[in-house]
Backbone:
């Protein structure tokens, strides 16, 4: 039986010798779209499930406040006592907060569940769109060099651009974390380089270009 030829997967293409730029770009764009849609779908499902879980927890908390307010008042008092507030003051605070059902629900959601109903529970579509956009940008950067270079120079420039973008992302995160920029940037770059090296090594593995 004649051996069936198999085209190498997109993530191996750049590591395969003798592959035309248009094939690399086509495989890269295909991988970009597949990965971006997969990330977006996964993020959307994850956020939606998380939102439904939080909504159920808040609904159960509202039910408990309505059916057994004394227990919930005592529970809130205990929470404040554990935070170091004197028992008398904790009891007065709980009594005052429980007098308004809306305030009581918001307080219990924050203190017990760690949620803030006033700020919303997150949008699945916003999270999905963000994941799609960030993945697309990240996957597009390595393809830029193949639009004007070919062979090893294109691979080298692609690697440099990818590492530079990883460093920039790591350094940019420090605006939120407060860490040193070069440490965070180098860490992000090292992680990305290790992952890229593994993928590139798989592409260079015997049989990756022949389909054996």
Residues:
């Amino acid at each position: 039986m004649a051996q069936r030829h198999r085209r190498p997967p997109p993530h191996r293409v750049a590591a395969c010798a003798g592959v035309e730029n248009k094939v690399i770009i086509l495989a890269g764009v295909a991988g970009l779209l597949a990965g971006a849609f997969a990330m977006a779908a996964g993020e959307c499902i994850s956020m939606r499930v998380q939102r439904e879980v939080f909504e159920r927890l808040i609904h159960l908390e509202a039910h408990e406040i309505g059916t057994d307010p004394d227990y919930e008042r005592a529970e809130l008092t205990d929470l404040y006592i554990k935070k170091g507030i004197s028992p008398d003051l904790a009891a007065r605070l709980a009594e005052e907060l429980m007098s308004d059902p809306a305030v009581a629900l918001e307080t219990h959601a924050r203190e017990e569940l760690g949620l803030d109903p006033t700020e919303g529970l997150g949008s699945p579509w916003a999270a999905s769109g963000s994941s799609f956009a960030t993945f697309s940008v990240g996957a597009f950067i390595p393809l830029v060099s193949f639009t004007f270079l070919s062979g090893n120079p294109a691979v080298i420039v692609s690697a440099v651009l990818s590492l530079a973008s990883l460093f920039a992302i790591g350094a940019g995160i420090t605006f939120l974390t407060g860490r040193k920029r070069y440490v965070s940037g180098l860490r992000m770059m090292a992680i990305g380089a290790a992952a890229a090296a593994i993928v590139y090594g798989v592409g260079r593995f015997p049989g990756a270009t022949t389909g054996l």
Remarks:
- The first helix runs from residue 10 to 13.
- DSSP finds eight helices and no strands in the chain.
- Helices lie at 10-13, 21-67, 69-82, 87-98, 101-113, 124-140, 151-177, 181-204.
